[in-house]
Amino acid sequence: MIKMVVFDMAGTTVDENNVVYKTLMLAINEKGINVALDEVLAEGAGKEKLQAIRSVLAIKQIEDETLAKEIFERFLTMLDDAYAEQDIFEQPNATNVFNALRESGIAVVLNTGYNRQTAEALITKIGWQLDVNFDCLITASDVELNRPNPDMILLAMSQLGITDGSEVAKVGDSAIDIEEGQNAGCGLSIGITTGAHTPEQLRQANPDYIIGDLIELLGILENANKALV
């Protein structure tokens, strides 16, 4: 039975018009490295952002840790400026789905490749509150190993007293989200098409389901839990 759902943020529950990956692209391009947004999304979506930069540089045959860290520091400054001006919204039905899950006794976890400062700023801007709209936030800066490693999900499970990964569902908009859920032994790993990756890209990670709207999750969980009763 599913007792906890772990949601990615940008592209899954948060609509920020891809400002993170657009900013990442600009920070890389500032160094004279020509990358397109599609390349940044394909290689960096869902990853901790320094690792995303490393991955994008790798497709240009660049392995330079000093350069990657310089781009990362510049990216953080640019992102703060972008978020100060950017309108941030929830993805359609996010709050309604959170509320429905919590009312049915299913814990809601937000996890993200952002650091905690950025994630909390986004949550505040949307107006979500801990213990009102969600039960736990786990960010890339809270763990040593990031996606596709399962550490963020395992930390959330530990904090909420869940010991069996089969009682957890993971929902995300990138293949690496799906891989993270699979590596954590999640009972369900679900891709959503509202963010970084296309259905074809998501399908390559072999999710249990691919959805186009968060509201579809409620029916999937209801049927999954009924099957186990």
Task: Describe the structure in your own words.
- With 229 residues, the chain is an alpha/beta fold.
- Helices cover 47% and strands 14% of the residues.
- The protein contains ten helices and eight strands.
- It is globular and about 55 Å long.
Structural class: alpha/beta
Whole-number mean pLDDT: 92
How many β-strand runs? 8
Oligomer: single chain
Shape: globular
The total count of helices amounts to 10
Determine the CATH superfamily of the largest domain.
HAD superfamily/HAD-like
Q: Briefly note the CATH topology name of the largest domain.
A: Rossmann fold
Across the major sheet, the strand order is 5-4-1-6-7-8
Protein name: Phosphonatase-like hydrolase
GO cellular component, one term: cytosol
GO molecular function: phosphoglycolate phosphatase activity
Keywords: Hydrolase
Topology diagram in text:
Layout lengths: L3 E5 L5 E2 L3 H11 L7 H8 L4 H10 L6 H21 L3 E2 L3 H10 L3 E6 L3 H11 L9 E4 L11 H10 L7 E5 L2 H9 L4 E5 L6 H5 L5 E3 L4 H13 L1
Parallel strand pairs: 1-4, 1-6, 4-5, 6-7, 7-8
Antiparallel strand pairs: 2-3
Helix pairs in contact: 1-2, 1-4, 2-3, 3-4
